[in-house]
Every structure is written in structure tokens, then in C-alpha cells.
């Protein structure tokens, strides 16, 4: 069985590692007539295209920057940041295999049978967050002193921005994706015409305190999906350094992807292989990897200059309130 781990000690660049891994995976898929491995190969091609072609990212970032400029003009009293990131190779690979493990496990638990390959393949085409942008806003205390009132003002502005974002990007060649009823909003601050497209984690707050607005677009110029997240600074703090931080989220995912107690070994080859690949990724000692533009002291202290583990940063835009020092 071919795994990504086998290619991470060669000193190659991330792009060359990805190219070798995907080509070998394709050959194995054709030899073993594995539809799932072939789909895995096409998934890796998407990531390779993101790494290889910079022109469309530049054009896409420019369109996002236009919304930044709109906000700077419309809300000069707000502080806000725009950040964009391509999902890292390691996390994208973990997510693909994790989807297989979770779907097969839950299906088997419910039906005492394995899902048809066609159903699994349909599930594996739903990746929408290989490129993600985040808008974080804050109302400086110099404008609104009262903490409760300031939070209400920030949330009001967040929904106002969410209402405008859909039309703004549609005018620039993006097609909005329906949320399919997931985390459907009942907030009166969200317009009826945009409500079906947002996954509202503000009114549908997670148990760990995670709150955010999520919306997905298809960039018709770049032919790829883009996820947009909108948060206040308080929401972002909870998600980044609070109880909903990514480390905790990843630990939860690791636990879900480590489940195989009800699945007998050898009965479902695509489950067995996805499970093994996922477990090997979880056991990586990053300090021992030999990848160009990447170094780590341990699994916490990482200098990732190539997007192997933390992802590739597309853009950072920061706007400070024009009046915060008045």
C-alpha cells in the first residue's frame, strides 16, 4: 500500500513529493482497479494545481482585495483582517482518508453493511475548503465602551457584511453554493435571500463555543471552490486560542479517524487502507521529515515555509480603524 509518509524523507520539494505520490497512487489504482484510489489521485491533482498555478490565485486574491477595499470605505471605524490559506498537503491527505473512515464506520454501524462504492465516491467529491478565506472584524473600544453593546454592534456589522458579500462576489465571477440546510440561520439580521447559503454557527453555536458564519463559492475563473468564514475578534479568539482552538478540533478528528472497533480487518479494503494511511499520518514525527523549506524541532515548534503542515498563506490584509487613536 502506498502512503504519503513514504515520500516525506527524500529532501524533495512539496510539489515533487506530491507529484511522485500521486503518480504512484494512480499506477496502483489502475493495477488494482481501485475506484477509490483513482478518486484519491484526482483529489491530489487538485492540490497540485493549487500549488503549481499562481496566476489564478493572484486574480482571485485581487477580487477578495476589492471587497477589502469596499469594507475599508464603508466601515472606516472598524478594524478587520482578511486572511487566505490553501489547506496543507498533510491535512488535506488526512482529511481525504478521514472522510472514508468516518463514512464507512458510521454507515456500517447503522446498516451492518458497507456502503456501495458509488455512494462513497459521491461523498468524496464534497471537498469545498481546500482554499479558505477568513474575515475577522472588531469594533475598537474607543467607539463603544460598553462590552455588551460593543459585541452586539460587532455581530450586527458581521451580518451586514455577510449580506453584502454574496452579491459582491457573484458580480465578480463567483457562484454561491447552497448550504443544504446545514446550520440554517434564523437570525433576523441575515437577509432572506442569502440565508440558504450560509452555515450559521453563531445562532447554532457549537458545544465548545465555536461561532462563525461560513459560505462557499465556486470561482468560475479558477474552477475551484472557496470557503469564506466571517467572525468577530472574540469569535476568532475562541476558535484560535480558546476552547474551540484548532488543536482541540484536530484531536477530536483524530479520535474519530481512529475508530475501527466494529470494522473487521480485511473485509473492506478501502476502509483498511484509509485507516492505515490516517494512522501513519497521526504518528508522524515532524522533526524527522526531510522536506525542502520545512523544519521542525518537534510536533509543536514548526517552521513551515512550503505549506506542508500549516498550509500556504495566500494573503494577509489588515485594516486599523481610522479613528481609533482620536
Counting DSSP H or I runs of 4 or more residues, the number of helices is: 9
Q: Work out the oligomeric state of the chains in this entry.
A: single chain
What is the percent of helical residues? Answer: 40-55%
Element pattern in H and E: HHHEHHEHEEEEHHHEEE
**CA-based gyration radius:** 21 Å
Low-confidence region ranges: none
Biggest β-sheet description? 7 strands, mixed
Count every beta strand, where a strand is a DSSP E run of 2 or more residues.
9
Strand content: 15-25%
Distance between the termini: 63 Å
Mass-distribution shape: globular
- Structural class label: alpha+beta
Summed over residues and divided by their number, the pLDDT gives a mean of: 91
Mind sketching the topology for me?
Blueprint: H1 14-32, H2 35-52, H3 55-74, E1 79-86, H4 89-111, H5 117-123, E2 131-138, H6 147-170, E3 174-177, E4 198-200, E5 213-219, E6 224-232, H7 233-240, H8 246-257, H9 269-282, E7 294-296, E8 302-304, E9 312-319
Parallel strand pairs: 2-6
Antiparallel strand pairs: 1-2, 1-9, 3-5, 4-5, 5-6, 7-8
Helix pairs in contact: 1-2, 2-4, 3-6, 4-8, 4-9
How would you summarize this macromolecular structure in one to three sentences?
With 326 residues, this protein is α+β, with helices and mostly antiparallel strands. 44% of the residues lie in helices and 16% in strands.
